[in-house]
Amino acid sequence: MQSQPLRTSVIGSYPFPGWLEFSARHLAEFGSADISEMQDDAAQVAIQDQLAAGLDVITDGEQTRFDFNLSFYGFIEGIALEPASPRRFGPPAHDQRGKHEIVGELRAPRGLGAVEEFQRLQRLAAHTGKRLKVSVPGPYTLSGRLAPNAQYKDRYAITEALLPLVNKEIADLVAAGAEEICVDEPSMSCYGYREDTKRFVDIFNRTVSSGYGKARICTHLCFGNFKGHPVGWRKYAPLFPAFLDLHCDEVHVEMANREYAELEVIKPMAERYDVAVGIIDVKSYHIETPEQIADAVRACLKHAPAEKLVFAPDCGLSQTARWAAKKKLASMVAGVGIVKKELGLA
């Protein structure tokens, strides 16, 4: 599935409006119709901001989720949700997220909620003519917040139990008309240096088997971004060449925050699938100028042809203030536009 040359996209999440964060802390004061209206309004805000920036691909900003993956645990049966963070004071970081206890068979009879999110996006963005993308976390990443037990002895056993749940969600998204589905697996890129990368590829390919060839399947490989902090060893080299065998139409790698280290990796990647390069640093409040973005695009073109390149922020924007996210997206689109004009693509 070929993309348009030098297209602009996002990973999935977008900052919550302040009123949504406030309202989420007082949900008991709202009725079900009020909450539904609030969800529509928040998604509309994210959509409008992306349209104003001029993006080629838009999402709902994951406005109805708690983080990019945490809400999914509420759809999974057999889990006792952790009552409180293991570390509640001090600098915010990944170790404030503990693990949920598994108390039964892992099932998701209601699905994982992504279909409903996509249907809302379809309804709210039908008039835009834009390509729509929906995301769902992969089973290895989802397994990271669940504690092994006698039934599921390690992280891989938990992953195998979650895999058919995500596979079915992808199938249901395809049936609902989703043309672009991003399966987020940042845990694979975070821990690929110490795990069997071929095993990761097998897990991923079985996960997406229900959608590969039917929709544009993407994946996001980053090193974590909770409160602006990464969590993994930030090198892509350990993932390759194994990850060249991912059943993907587009693979995203973060580059801006890493000062474009290993940019050359996009050359072999572009020979197998489209490469989405992160050229906006979501961990920094420096607002990239269009000229800086254009320089980054030109550097990418030294390694991959225009028709194989997509440009996006390094990661989801949920951890970035909305005022900065709006400016960063506008600069990204403007900078890519400069190079499009130079190449006669605009």
Automatic annotation (TrEMBL):
Gene3D superfamilies reported in the protein's UniProt record: 3.20.20.210
Q: Which GO terms describe its biological process?
A: methionine biosynthetic process; methylation
Reported EC number(s) for this entry are 2.1.1.14
Give GO terms: molecular function aspect only: 5-methyltetrahydropteroyltriglutamate-homocysteine S-methyltransferase activity; zinc ion binding
Instruction: Tell me the InterPro entries matching this sequence.
Output: Met_Synth_C/arc, UROD/MetE-like_sf
The name on file for this protein is 5-methyltetrahydropteroyltriglutamate--homocysteine methyltransferase
This protein's UniProt keywords: Metal-binding, Methyltransferase, Transferase, Zinc
Q: What is the lineage of its organism?
A: Bacteria, Pseudomonadati, Verrucomicrobiota, Verrucomicrobiia, Verrucomicrobiales
Query: Which cofactors does this gene product need?
Result: Zn(2+)
In what residue span(s) does the Cobalamin-independent methionine synthase MetE C-terminal/archaeal domain sit?
7-334
